[in-house]
Structures are given as C-alpha cells and as structure tokens.
Design brief:
The structure is a single chain. This protein is an alpha+beta fold. The chain is built from 8 helices and 26 strands. It has helices at about 5-20, 25-45, 105-110, 140, 145-165, 170-185, 295-315, 365-370; strands at about 65-70, 75-80, 80-85, 90-95, 110-115, 120-130, 130-135, 190, 200, 210, 215-220, 225-230, 240-245, 250-260, 265-270, 275-285, 290-295, 335-340, 350-355, 360, 375-380, 385, 390, 395-400, 405-410, 415-420. A 6-stranded mixed sheet has the order 8-9-17-11-14-13, with no helix packed on it. A 5-stranded antiparallel sheet has the order 18-26-25-21-22, with no helix packed on it. It has a 4-stranded mixed sheet with strand order 10-16-15-12, with no helix packed on it. A hairpin with a 5-residue loop joins strand 8 and strand 9 (about 200). The longest helix is centred in the N-terminal third of the chain and has 22 residues, at about 25-45. The N and C termini lie far apart (about 145 Å).
Length: about 425
C-alpha cells in the first residue's frame, strides 16, 4: 500500500470518527476530506487510472461495512464509499460515491421516521410498493404524552379527510360548468306577466327568487301541473305552503314561500308530474318578488308537433264523409270493371260507391311510389271531363257516382290509362 493510499484511509477514518462522535468537528472533517480526496484524485489522474477518479476506492475483501441513514433509510454501505461534508450552516451531509451499488439495500431496507425521545432510536415503519404505512404504537412506547399522541392521530385523520375532500381535475371541470350555468350569460331575460308577476323561462338558468320576511312570494306553476315533492335546503328558517287556484283542467298549483329572517339564503327543488324546478332563494329586508311564473318554450314546440300530427292523420284518414252523413249497406254498389295493364303499379284493386260518392282503392303505397299520381276523368257524352276528388291515404274519394271513368298517367305515345266501368248501371 503506497503512501497516498495510507493517507487516504487515515483521513477517511478520522473523518468518520469526527462525523459519528463529535458533531462539532464536521467542518474540520469536511476540510480534511476535501484535501485528501483532492490529493487522491490528482494521484489517480497522474497514474492514468481515470476510471477511479469518480470512485476513490473499489470494494474488496477488506471492506468495512457500516450502518448509516441514507435517503430516509438505514442501509449497510462500504465506509470507503462515504463522502462526508458540511453544509453552509454547519449541518452534516452524507452522500455515496456510487449509490447504484446499494440499490437492493435501498429497496429492502426499512424506513425510519418519527424519532423517539431516546437518541438514536426510531419508530419502525413498514415499506410496501413505494408507499409507507406507519404501525401505530402506544404513547408510552413513543415516549410522548396521551395528549400529544391524540393530537398526532387527529392530524393524521385530518390529512385523510383533506385527501377525500380534494377535487380531481375532472371534478374541477364539472364545477366550471356549474359556474358557467350560474352566470346565466346566455339566458333568456324575464318578462312581466299577468298582474305584474315575473315570468321566467324554465330551465334556461337557475333563477334567484328575492323574498322578504313577513311577506309571501307566490310561485305559480303550469295549469294542470301537480307537485310531487318540495325539498328546501333550509326548512327551518323558510316556510313552503301549497295552494291551488281554479278547478278541473284549469286548476293551478301555487307554492307560497316566506322567510323568517332577512339576509339569509338557501335553495329549493320542486318536483312535479311534468318537470323539476330548481330555485335559489334570497331573503332581503326591503325587496321581494310578489309572484313568479314560468314560460315553457318546449311545450310550444310540442303543441305544434301535436297539431301537425293531427292534421296529417286527418289527411291520411280513411274515408271521411260529410257531417251528418251515414253509410247505408243497402246502398253500397260493388260491381265495377277495372281494365288496364296489370304491370301498372297504380292500377286500382277495387272500386265501390255508396250512391253519393265513389271510392277507388289502390295498393298500399302505390300512388306515393309512382312518378306521378294518376289523374281521374269521367266520360260524359263521349268526352273526358275532370271531376272533384281527393286522395285519402291510398283511396281516391270522388264527389259523385259515374258510369265510366279513366285513370290517366302521361301523354301522347307514353300515356297509360286504366278504365273503370260501373256494371249494372241503370
């Protein structure tokens, strides 16, 4: 062993002794180590062994293993791999020349956390999958009082509660949507209704209903609407009383709201057999809304849909005769001859009359699938005469009885016709 290595090992032993025995000698230890380390690295570089410049001494059979606390864990390391330094405030710092050599020890070593009152002793904590789980100990074993122990446990419980109350990113996005809806930037503004009531468009935003102690605010619902539940946020300082005006189909449900104090707020959810109302309530000392009603744009659209559907049914309804007219089976005449190409999609399948009107029935959907609907003409004195008729689904209803008629599609050489003749005509 040359002089340089002897000097190195001697300095390392002295630094270790200063570090573990006399904390006051940290600065001296650091200075001595830096001096020896610098001399050693210079000697190594001069010898051409540059690969040893980053690792002062390699492990060998003479390695001396010591227990140190490194990165929160107690591990066994080669004393020659320790780098002992002092920080700017005189505190001790420990580093390893090559921490990767102790990866296994770092993975399996127990974590040491809360220090007991006795120097050098720690509360052991189990280590599992990158998370640490403290094993609770009695206050007497920890060397602390019952009060301190309870405070510590309370702090741990609050930490768990805080974690449960913490919002995730997706929750923040949901709250942002709630705030945007609450701002009501694109909401339909309210208007004045009957007797000065405030008319609010339902569901366009959450309205704030201003109430006043010793006064009643009337929430007027849609005629025929029945309340199935009222759920206030503060049922103690706010009262909600049901009422009804009108009768039968015109019966209208009212919810009477009255606060018991000013400068308070809450909300209420009113469920009905048609919809749900969500209202924010504010109690003011001087202002209030006497009555609030709602408009329902969706119902107007539905009313038009119903109207158009009924009209369509009327147009497509089966033979509808004039008011006051009834069919007498004895007056039905079913004997008609139908002549024309069978390949024609719109060729009628039957014809009959009731003595007043004539009915020409086609195959289901045949007239709608045709390029053009056939035109009906009646033969009178060897001339073709147009007559009044209307289409009801797949039936032509002719406003008279004829002896002979024709259904015509096209003109000239591309004209097709079906001739209808009433048999047994007198």
């Amino acid at each position: 062993m040359n002089l340089m290595n002897k000097k190195f090992y001697l300095a390392l032993a002295v630094c270790t002794a200063f570090f573990f025995v006399t904390p006051a000698g940290i600065a001296e230890c650091s200075a001595l180590w830096e001096s020896v380390s610098g001399d050693f690295r210079e000697a190594v570089l001069e010898s051409g062994k540059e690969e040893m410049a980053t690792e002062p001494v390699s492990a060998d059979e003479t390695a001396e293993m010591v227990e140190i606390e490194y990165d929160g864990k107690m591990i066994s390391v080669d004393i020659r791999d320790l780098i002992l330094m002092a920080d700017g405030e005189g505190g001790q710092k420990v580093d390893l020349g090559d921490p990767s050599r102790y990866g296994k020890q770092l993975e399996t070593a127990p974590l040491y956390g809360v220090r007991k009152e006795e120097p050098g002793e720690y509360q052991n904590v189990s280590y599992e999958e990158d998370e640490y789980y403290a094993e609770p100990e009695a206050p007497s074993n920890l060397g602390i009082s019952e009060r301190e122990y309870e405070e510590e446990q309370r702090a741990r419980r609050w930490a768990e509660v805080f974690e449960d109350l913490s919002l995730r990113e997706i929750d923040d996005k949901a709250l942002e949507l709630v705030r945007e809806f609450g701002e009501a930037k694109d909401a339909v503004p309210p208007i004045t209704g009957v007797a000065g009531s405030v008319v609010i468009t339902w569901s366009s935003y959450t309205p704030k209903i201003v109430c006043r102690p010793m006064y009643v605010t009337d929430i007027i619902l849609q005629p025929g609407e029945s309340v199935t539940g009222v759920h206030p946020g503060d049922p103690v300082r706010w009262s909600f009383v049901p009422s009804v005006s009108g009768s039968g189909e015109n019966a209208q449900t009212h919810v009477m709201i009255k606060p018991l104090a000013s400068d308070i707020s809450t909300n209420v959810i009113i469920n009905t057999d048609r919809r749900t109302y969500q209202l924010d309530l504010i109690s003011s000392a001087k202002d209030f809304m006497p009555s609030v009603s709602f408009s329902y744009p969706g119902d107007s659209i539905k009313a038009w849909d119903v109207f158009m559907t009924e009209k369509k049914k009327e147009r497509e309804s089966s033979v509808a005769l004039s008011s006051g007219y009834s069919i007498d089976p004895e007056n039905l005449h079913l004997a008609y001859e139908i002549r024309g190409r069978d390949s024609l999609r719109w060729k009628p399948i039957r014809v009959w009359d009731d003595g007043v009107k004539t009915y020409i029935q086609f195959k289901k959907g045949s007239t709608r699938k045709s390029v053009e609907a056939p035109v009906l003409v009646v033969y009178e004195h060897k001339k073709e005469v147009l007559v009044n008729y209307r289409a009801a689904r797949d039936i032509y209803i002719v406003d008279r009885v004829f002896d002979k008629a024709a259904l015509i599609v096209g003109t000239g050489s591309t004209q097709y016709r079906v001739v209808i003749t009433r048999l047994n005509a007198e």
